[in-house]
Amino acid sequence: MPKRELLLGDEALALGALHAGLSGVFAYPGTPSTEITEYIQGHPLAAERNVHRTWSTNEKTAMEEALGMSFVGKRALVCMKHVGLNVAADAFVNSGMTGAHGGLVVVVADDPSMHSSQNEQDSRFYGQFALIPTFEPSTQQETYDMIQEAFDLSERYQIPVLMRLTTRMAHSRAVVEVREPKAENPLSYPQKARQWVLMPGNSRLRYKELIADNERLELEAAESRFNHYAEGGDKRLGIIASGIAYNYLMENYPDGCPYPVLKISQYPLPKELVRRLAAECHELLVIEEGQPFIEQAIRGVLPEPLKIRGRMSGELPRTGELTPDSVRAALGLAPHRAHAASQIVVPRPPALCQGCGHRDMYTALTEVVREFPNGKVFSDIGCYTLGWLAPFHAIDTCVDMGASITMAIGAAHAGQHPSVAVIGDSTFTHSGMTGLLDAVNEGANITVVISDNLTTGMTGGQDSAGTGRLEQICAGIGVDPAHIRVVVPLPKNREEMKRIIREEIAYKGVSVIIPRRECIQTAKRHAAARNKK
Amino acid sequence: MKKDIILSGVGGQGILSIATVIGRAALAEGLQIKQAEVHGMSQRGGDVQSHLRISSSEIRSDLIPRGGADLIVSLEPMEALRYLPWLSAEGWVVTNTVPFVNIPNYPDEKALDAELHALPHVVLLDADALAREAASPRSANMALLGATAPLLDIAAERLEEGIRAIFARKGDAVVEANLAAFRAGYETAKKQTAR
What we know:
Radius of gyration of chain A: 25 Å
CATH topology of the largest domain in chain A: Rossmann fold
CATH class of the largest domain in chain A: Alpha Beta
Strand content of chain B: 15-25%
Radius of gyration of chain B: 16 Å
Number of domains of chain A: 3
Number of helices of chain A: 20
Helix content of chain B: 40-55%
Oligomer: heterodimer
Number of strands of chain A: 18
CATH architecture of the largest domain in chain A: 3-Layer(aba) Sandwich
């Protein structure tokens, strides 16, 4: 009997990759993708084979490291959240041009409804844009099976494969049947060496091949076992359902769907199957998680030969993740009978933990900034973004990884004072260091607070790339060591912190203040581990 | 069999441990399981919920449809009420009665109590006190699991095996504390559900 395990979608993917002969996982933590790398880090097979599994500094370095591993013939996995693909985009798009050698799979976990993210971007557009085949599983079992096929396809076509998860797939558990692990690939080198040097002459040749391959990959998708066409007796409607949306469709038809259904989990979109469905049915309904990727492709601009319904027409909500209920409404089925909502329940937003050092940092910082008529605080991505909420109301912006320092620079050049940046230690090494170099070179009059909790806190406490070296890094970049100030963010040190913040805001130039105290969550875990010994 | 369960509480209270124990027990029984969890930013002291579905036949959606839940199991009373639109007409609410007040506009506790008592099928318990008396205040989540057990259609022994498995690495004392809390919750609920 095959072994059955209860796995998160992220874990099913990780285990599938290990069983496919993975030699390295490269990633920067990001919800909802973090558990993929963590699972590999904790798995005995990864230790036994010494699979590379430490965190990278950001998604771009991760993508490039994986591409290097693929170049020498081994199977490599890159994992990130959707906005991480923006950071890795240069490497990702160009990896379509170089192609892969050892199997290379890029897993991107999208976050529709923005549970832990700043937007709802849909990674399938990136796959299409880069001419990279894309997989989108519907179940945890399919995730486990699909990652192995993704590596095979990557090697067969010598191209990276994008695997798109969404929050509910990444963070939902189900029973998965697992197989025996395969061996790792030996070292080997690409036969088509020329396309790995993307000089214009080489790129022009390669681009034509890439386009031709894309057409063959569409035929593969039409034949794929992950895409299937189910006949249905009632042709008034034809349904296209992709990825996890397929589950919400079938939930509403426990005895089988009466309409023909085209399930899509592999792209390029197989146009032949879409045409077949359109020819058989009077109307189409497109159900997809995220942005209307398929719907937009088949709808176009010109008048339609038949009615297409979906997120763009308003039958399904234009934003937010799908639910079995929103899909039910689009299918024209009556809602289930449900209890009335309670009238006394109020929202309970997330908050910084009691005892967290960011709290003490913000208390001191806001008290000083409010001494000025127009102090502005540019913040960044991490737990400390919660400083926008009550009681702190401490920050004015949060945009993308690293934007705190660079936006403070731009504002300072326009005459803003004080122009303060607040960034965490892990975000600083991810994307803040280059901005700090700009600040030094441009003599920007800014005050940078690197709130150092010695970890990547928001995603659960992963290692932070610059721990123990932040002062050295800042000094190396060129910040005057006299204006690199370290404080311990505790209530008893509040007056000292305020004095230092005042002094550094008064200093005309780049100063860095590092409030340093371990994350309260990792500190608890470390204390428990010590007690056990 | 089919049980659709909404687990709810405040980030950090330990609803995922309840889900893990039920999941292990269901796996041991050869049942199908789907369990959608909340990770990341939404966990920090905010409301958290998990959709846990157990069935002897194939489960499609990772999310429970509105009006479909057989059980709401909550570590916090207001959080139990938050998910009422998911509860089926015959569904049960099993909740801890101890409010977790970390917001300035937390509702009036009398009104909260009245709404909970007005539900047709409800098990109310002070899981914190039960756990404290039985063993350790940190086992309140296992007291709540115990209170859910009579409504689960999974043998209590299976759930106890699950508790042993997930707490084993923390030592025998922790396992025993959690088992004691589980049993205390079980006894309390049996009295309230036997009518």
